[in-house]
Structures are given as structure tokens and as C-alpha cells.
Amino acid sequence: MSFISTLSIVPGQSVAEVAAALRATLGSAKVVHLRGLAASQPAASWPAFYDALTEATGQCLHLDENFAQGSIRTGQKWIEVRYDAAIPDDAAYRFSKNAQPLHTDESYLSEPAEVMFMHCLVQAPAGGETTFVDADVLWQQLQQHAPALAAQLLNRPVCFAKAGDSRTLPIIAQTPAGLRLNWNYHCVDPSETAENHALTQAFREFLLVHVAGTPAEMAIQLAPGEAVAWWDDRVLHGRRAFQAVATNDRFLLKSGFRLMADV
After folding, report:
1. If we measure between CA atoms, which residue out of 198, 154, 168, 22 comes closest to residue 106?
2. Does the reported pTM lie above 0.85?
3. CB 132 within 8 A of CB 212
């Protein structure tokens, strides 16, 4: 499976046609960058197009969380990822202009999506690229720079928890279908063992030193109207810091789905 592929949305193409192309591309790539919608449709129609596209591509999950109420699920499909000047930058990555460390979105969800999907309404004045690291490249970096840590991580279960939900999986698992990832430092269960807390701290430091900001990390700058879809457990992703002054200076919508059976 390749790492990143580009899918061009052609003027006049139907939602069903784009969905079929997206499913096919997700069958051969871990990350898919969708481009071309802005050339064929006005901005006001983008949310409706991508809402229909995700429904036609997979079984969509309603993953939105209410930040003000302690991350309680709202039942909404789309998660707002936007700068909010009223929320301190250190309160929530979702609303800040800070860089977001590498992670997977579904680390603590007992009923996770397979594919995450995010589209851009407003691009930041500068910065804000979404970054991705291939699981295979991550493993190569671990073996090269921290072989002992690699051996400790592989297939060792760790519990991640948040807002009353939890999931226990290895940070890096070797499966018959290849490497699978499950990681968010900020969602490691506080009740985890001291050994696992030490392990997750060591992995966090490894990512900061040997992966983030290196050629192992690939960046995609989503322009307005563009989107990106990725297999959540086959890559790590993050965000570079960006410039923003007013609320909604950067605004994206994110959701997740389980792929339909024809892939």
C-alpha cells in the first residue's frame, strides 16, 4: 500500500463517482488528498458535497465532542477544528493555533472509525499544515534510532481512555495485514502501570526528537475546498503551528467512517 495519493475531483463528476474513486484509492493508499472541488463548486456547497460524499463512501460515525462539557458526545457527525480566540491555546488543540503532536484520533474509542476525513473551509494565513507519518517509516526510524524501545513497544497493550470510553491496544502492533498504530500521549489512561507510563513517555520523546520535523513527516497544506482522508491506524498525524488572530481564521470539518465492503 502506498503512503499518499492525490484524487482529483473533476467538474461535473457526481458524488457517487467520487465516492467510488475514493474507495478505490483508499484500497491502495494510506492517505488520500482530494483536490479540485473549489474549481467546480461554490464554497457554500462544499459542506453538503463532502457530507454526501462521506455517506456514499462508508458508514459514518457521529464522533463530535462538546469541549465545554468535558468532551461529552454531541451526536453530531462533523467535528469543528477551528481557531477560537476566546479559548486559551493550551486548553484544546482543536481550537488552538499551536502545533499538534503526532497521534491517532481513535486511540480511546471502543467503537472507532477506520478512516478519518477532514475538509478545509478556511485556510490559516500561514502554517497549519496537516502532517502524516507512515507506520512503516515510523518503524524504520525506531529500529534505527531506538531498537530497544521498538522491541518494548511492539505488541505491548496500553490502555487509552477519555470521557468514559477506553480502548486497550498496542501502540505498534504487527498484524497479518501489516503494522497498526494506536497512540495519543494525552489519552493514556492515568491508571496505567508505571512501566507503561514510562514507555509512553519514552515514545513521546522519541517522536519529538527523531520524527517530528524530519523527512519522515510529510505535510499536506489543505487549501479551501480540499480534503484529506486517511486510515487512522496506518499513520500518525499532527498539525504544524499557524498564524491566526480572529476566531475562524482557520476552519476545518472532520468526521470518520467505516469503509463499505467493496474495498
Report:
1. 168
2. yes
3. no
pLDDT in tens, 83-115: 999 999 888 899 999 999 999 999 999 999 999
- Residues with Cβ within 8 Å of residue 234, at least 6 apart in sequence: 1, 30, 134, 135, 178, 179, 180, 181
What is the helix (H) or strand (E) element at residue 257, kind and residue range?
Answer: strand 251-259
Q: What is the DSSP string of 11-52?
A: TT--HHHHHHHHHHHHTTEEEEEEE-GGGTS-GGGHHHHHHH
Q: Is-contact 218 132, C-beta < 8 A?
A: yes
Name the residue among 246, 156, 230 with its Cα closest to residue 192: 156
Rg (Cα) of the chain, in Å, rounded? 18
**CA–CA–CA angle 74, 112, 69 (5° rounding):** 25
Over the stretch 155-192, which tens digit does the pLDDT of each residue have?
Answer: 999 999 998 999 999 999 999 999 999 999 999 999 99
Q: Is the pLDDT of residue 72 over 80?
A: no
Are the CB atoms for 180 and 135 separated by under 8 Å?
A: yes
Average pLDDT along the chain: 95
Query: Rounded CA gap, 198 and 10, in Å?
Result: 49
Question: Three-state SS for 249?
Answer: coil
CA atoms within 13 A on the CB side of 263: 22
In this prediction, residue 262 carries a pLDDT of 47
- Judging by DSSP bridges, how do beta strands 2-8 and 29-35 pair with one another? parallel
Do the Cβ atoms of 154 and 174 come closer than 8 Å? yes
